[in-house]
TrEMBL record, chain A:
InterPro entries: 2Fe-2S_ferredoxin-like_sf, 2Fe-2S_ferredoxin-type, Adrenodoxin-like, Beta-grasp_dom_sf
All residue ranges annotated as the 2Fe-2S ferredoxin-type domain in the record: 61-169
Protein family (similarity comment): Belongs to the adrenodoxin/putidaredoxin family.
One Pfam short name: Fer2
Cofactor(s) demanded: [2Fe-2S] cluster
Keywords: 2Fe-2S, Electron transport, Iron, Iron-sulfur, Metal-binding, Transport
One MF annotation (Gene Ontology) recorded for this entry: 2 iron, 2 sulfur cluster binding
Protein name: 2Fe-2S ferredoxin-type domain-containing protein
Automatic annotation (TrEMBL), chain B:
Protein name: Adrenodoxin-NADP(+) reductase
Keywords: FAD, Flavoprotein, NADP, Oxidoreductase
GO molecular function term, any single one: oxidoreductase activity
Biased composition (Polar residues): 57-70
Cofactor(s), by name: FAD
UniProt organism field: Discostella pseudostelligera
SUPFAM superfamilies given in the database record: FAD/NAD(P)-binding domain (SSF51905)
Region (Disordered): 57-77
Classification lineage: Eukaryota, Sar, Stramenopiles, Ochrophyta, Bacillariophyta
InterPro entries per the UniProt record, alphabetical: FAD/NAD-bd_sf, Ferredox_Rdtase
């Protein structure tokens, strides 16, 4: 990892103003309240929430996922959908327990350093939203370039990007992971 | 063939026809066999909920595949039968990954068949003779999987329904994912635009196999393993039994004077179950009522309710209890109960908190102290839950959040500082910063309620109330200091005592897993740790038992932790089958796995009234009936007695 980006990583982690990113438009992801309302109100419909993304006529980019078993899957993502919506639509094994409202950490995905930096540059203040950071803190196998799939919107600039899904190791309790209490 | 497809109808049928043709070509399967494979195409989606997951359909289907009278070894293409004990997150995730893993295994069956052009036409199936690895060959013995989830309560979802705080509805969204397992994998077909052939073909295969009922899932609610059916009976009915029953039967205890004797000392587990409408914890309500609204306190409010809530004036609905609540322990459960108590009705009215609970909580409680023996760096809570407390006042709940600066300073020992270092310290560092900010900004004291986080306080004993010797009145705490190396600091007593008044005490220091009836004899339960003994999810010893979730690893972790856990257990199940261990255990011929049919018969014989998935759907619909709800925003009003739940589920319509 190159020095400047690591420095920024630390800055992002420890020193960003807590409420700075919670107001105003955010380039990444959906605003939480609007999504949450939509989903909680639709709780009893059988239509799955991830059908809400852009339609089949949206422009597409090719994204590659490195699966937990090290195989690779390249899919065609629609510009404007979240990475989580895209994964569910195309059968990529990414969980989304809270259905994409940034209330769990199950859509954890690892970016390349380049893409991570690029997305950080596109944020308003060089920091992730507070609640995404809070949820990432609980993610299994957290890395410096971890993000939540529900908070990443597919853009045209992502053509060819590679995303790594966290690996499930056998005996994951003896190799250093401490489950977060709840 | 066309006939089969017509069943599915509409545009989906055309698409399926195309896929089917291409798949048949690619798998080199003869048309006749394809027809046979698709004979069990499920009915259209609109009526699936009421038919495919019913026991009747399953029961009708299963024997034709299973031929129970045949020995397993003479029927190489039988179905794998799996029972999962417990319908909480760990059980559901295990069901999900087990069925998807089996689908993948069968896909690789197809892939091997494709690779070998000598595809067989006969009943033996395309791939039986083409096994690459020995392990895979063992797996070919199964042509599908039937998973049955058994649950002690009538309703599924475990702690998602009865543990997750009602003001966290987004966390409960996962229920929909679990419910969707009962509909079908990949049931939404939306005209894929995938570009690369490998991925799209794998999706196609996935969908077709799913449609072919390779994997079925059934729910048996109100079945108490250990009582309704013994563990050993279950083991002999099923090829594989997965224990996923969690740690909700017992608590860790403080073991200090007054804990067991005094009324008003409850475990957080009981309190959480009560405010979530758990049918076995209704008795907690009157205790909470007496503690929060004792005569002396409610007289000050001007209306003595005497434990019986017969006053329905709006002023009393918002009355704030002057009771002092002490929560012992500093995990997220402790923060949950503190938040619920503070918020009261105004913060819970739009949630699924039962109305009977709101009638007791009313406007909330004026003082809640959350007490921990160790410092803020060692707290087990996570930042999201702490941040919620810091925002209660801004969000209009009239609750101040207090942290004492001096306690943070006392907790910042050299070892604590070291614990914050490095990437692993990232979450803690952000949390400490948040707590420090909260300690700095305790300027607004105008709120009528408060929640206080107290650190380095060790509860030594509970003292009775002055006016009621049977009820708790205070908690005697000793100030502690931290001594020791990073991550091994111990709270040592300083002889300095502080007495915290308490009308209600909630002990929130963790749960304890308990063995099922019949486990002692098998010697598979670790009493010390409160978990089932296992290696990567395989229960130790020669048996067909597996374990997942809290009863495997202990009562820690968030819902998502069960994903990795389930994957590990599923990997162990697959290994158990592919290594030939399952066959070896069944080789003596004494065992025939009757699975779902056998279970249904046995429960019928024993007179156990079990709840099927469609029956639970009736409960679900009734709870969400608008006539039952306080407002449009309230997601559901739960039925809070077992009798009420069973009545709805079992009534004819």
């Amino acid at each position: 990892m190159n020095q400047p980006s690591y420095k920024r990583f630390l800055t992002k982690l420890f020193y960003h103003a807590p409420s700075a990113s919670s107001s105003g438009q955010h380039i990444l992801g959906l605003t939480n309240t609007s999504t949450m309302n939509r989903h909680t109100k639709n709780q009893r419909t059988t239509i799955r929430w991830h059908g809400d993304g852009p339609g089949p006529n949206a422009p597409t980019v090719n994204l590659t996922f490195i699966n937990p078993d090290d195989t690779q899957t390249t899919i065609s993502a629609r510009v404007g959908e979240t990475l989580l919506q895209c994964a569910h639509r195309t059968g990529i094994e990414m969980e989304g327990a809270c259905e994409g409202v940034c209330a769990c950490s199950t859509c954890h995905v690892i970016l390349t350093q380049e893409l991570y930096d690029q997305l950080m540059d596109e944020t308003e203040d060089g920091a992730l939203k507070e609640n995404e950071e809070d949820m990432l803190d609980m993610a299994f196998g957290l890395t410096h370039t971890s993000r939540l799939g529900c908070q990443i919107t597919v853009t045209e600039g992502m053509e060819g990007s590679v995303f790594t899904l966290p690996k499930a190791t056998r005996n994951f309790y003896v190799d250093g992971h401490k489950p977060t209490p709840h | 063939m066309a006939l089969c497809i017509a069943v599915r109808g509409g545009g989906g049928g055309t698409a399926t026809a195309r896929l089917l043709t291409s798949l048949r070509r690619s798998w080199c399967l003869p048309a006749q066999q394809t027809v046979q494979r698709f004979r069990h195409i499920p009915p259209p989606l609109c009526c699936r909920q009421s038919t495919t997951s019913t026991i009747a359909t399953d029961v009708n289907n299963a024997p034709s595949h299973n031929s129970p009278e045949q020995n397993a070894h003479h029927n190489p293409r039988r179905r794998l039968s799996v029972a999962i004990v417990g319908a909480g997150p760990s059980g559901f995730y295990t069901a999900k990954y087990l069925s998807s893993t089996v689908l993948k295994k069968l896909q690789s069956t197809a892939a091997i068949a494709l690779a070998s052009t000598s595809a067989a036409d006969d009943d033996g199936g395309a791939a039986d003779d083409n096994g690459g690895a020995v392990g895979i060959h063992n797996f070919f013995n199964y042509r599908g999987i039937d998973i049955d989830i058994l649950e002690r309560l009538p309703t599924p979802y475990g702690l998602v329904r009865y543990g997750v705080a009602p003001d966290h509805p987004e966390v409960k969204n996962v229920e929909k994912e679990f419910a969707s397992l009962f509909i079908e994998h990949g049931s939404t077909s939306d005209g894929e635009t995938t570009t690369t052939i490998p991925s799209s073909s794998s999706i196609i295969a996935n969908k077709l196999i799913a449609h072919n009922s390779i994997s079925t899932l059934s729910y048996f609610g109100n079945v108490d393993v250990g009582h309704s059916i013994s563990l050993s009976q279950l083991q002999s009915l099923y090829d594989i039994v997965v224990l996923a029953y969690g740690c909700q039967a017992s608590d860790k205890r403080l073991g200090i004077p007054g804990e067991a004797e005094l009324e008003g000392v409850l475990s957080a587990r009981e309190f959480v179950a009560w405010y979530n409408g758990h049918p076995e914890f209704g008795h907690i309500g009157p205790i909470v009522q007496r503690c929060l609204w004792p005569k002396s306190l409610s007289e000050e409010e001007g209306d003595a309710t005497d434990g019986n809530n017969n006053n329905s004036s709006s002023s009393s609905d918002t009355a704030i209890s002057k009771a002092r609540v002490v929560v012992i322990g500093q995990g997220n459960v402790a923060l949950d109960v503190a938040r619920i108590l503070s918020k009261g009705t105004s913060g819970l009215i739009d949630t699924d908190t039962p109305t009977s609970v709101l009638e007791i909580l009313k406007g909330g409680v004026s003082h809640v102290s959350i007490v921990g023996r160790r410092g803020h760096v060692q707290g087990a809570f996570t930042i999201k839950e702490v941040r919620e407390l810091t925002k209660l006042n801004d969000e209009g709940y009239d609750v101040a959040f207090l942290v004492r600066k001096e306690e943070l300073e006392m907790g910042m020992t050299e070892s604590s500082v070291a614990e914050l270092k490095g990437t692993a310290g990232r979450p803690k560092t952000r949390l400490v910063k948040l707590l420090q900010e909260a300690a700095e900004s305790t300027d607004d004291n105008s709120a009528s309620k408060q929640v206080e986080l107290r650190f380095l306080m060790n509860p030594k004993r509970f003292e009775p109330d002055d006016s009621n010797k049977d009820r708790v009145g205070s908690v005697v705490c000793e100030r502690t200091k931290l001594v020791g190396e990073p991550f091994h600091q111990q709270p040592i007593g300083t002889n300095e005592t502080e007495i915290i008044p308490a009308d209600l005490v909630l002990v929130s220091i963790g749960y304890r897993g308990m063995p099922l009836e019949g486990m002692k004899e098998l010697q598979i339960f670790d009493d010390k740790k409160g978990v089932v003994k296992n290696v990567q999810g395989k229960v130790t010893g020669k048996n067909n038992l597996f374990v997942t979730g809290w009863i495997k690893r202990g009562p820690l972790g968030i819902i998502g932790t069960n994903i990795m856990d389930a994957k590990e257990t599923v990997a162990s199940i697959i290994e158990f089958i592919e290594s030939g261990e399952l066959n070896a255990q069944q080789a003596d011929g004494s065992k025939v796995s009757l699975g779902r049919v056998g279970l249904t018969e046995l429960l019928g014989r024993e007179g156990v009234e079990f709840i099927s998935w469609p029956q639970f759907m009736k409960i679900d619909a009734a709870e969400c009936d608008r006539a039952r709800l306080r407002s449009d925003a309230q997601p559901r009003e739960k039925f809070i007695s077992t009798g009420g739940l069973l009545k709805i589920a079992l009534q004819d319509n």
